[in-house]
Design a protein that fits this description.
By secondary structure, the chain is of the alpha+beta class. Helices cover 28% and strands 42% of the residues. The chain has a single domain, classed as Gcn5-related N-acetyltransferase (GNAT) (Aminopeptidase), CATH 3.40.630. The longest helix is centred in the middle third of the chain and has 22 residues. The mean pLDDT is 92.
Length: 110
């Protein structure tokens, strides 16, 4: 299942386990996002394939030259995934989280 800039990753039983997508912020720049269940380890490869093979080409076709997102500073798994997708850490947003947690801004450019 997907929309123009997003999709749902299903497990082998057809149950949704992750959603990911992108929102245009302004011309050429997209904010990317993702949420997943605790069964993420079973579906992460499908999410990476979708991001690489479907979502990125859709953003590029729409004139995208930059994708960016925030990830909680302590969320090492998210940081690894973003780096795998070509993102680089660009800076820290201090106390951005609901409980005052820091977040790291990641960006990828064409």
């Amino acid at each position: 299942m997907r929309s123009r800039f997003g999709g749902v990753v299903l497990d082998a039983g057809g149950n949704p386990q992750a959603v990911l997508g992108a929102l245009p912020c302004w011309p050429g720049v997209f904010s990317v996002w993702m949420f997943a269940t605790d069964l993420w380890p079973a579906v992460w490869r499908g999410a990476v394939r979708f991001a690489r093979d479907v979502l990125a080409p859709q953003m590029i076709a729409a004139g995208g030259h930059r994708a960016q997102c925030f990830a909680a500073a302590g969320h090492d798994d998210a940081h690894r995934l973003l780096r795998r997708l070509g993102f680089q850490a660009e800076g820290t947003a201090r106390r951005m989280g609901r409980a005052g947690e820091d977040f790291i801004m990641f960006g990828a450019v064409r």
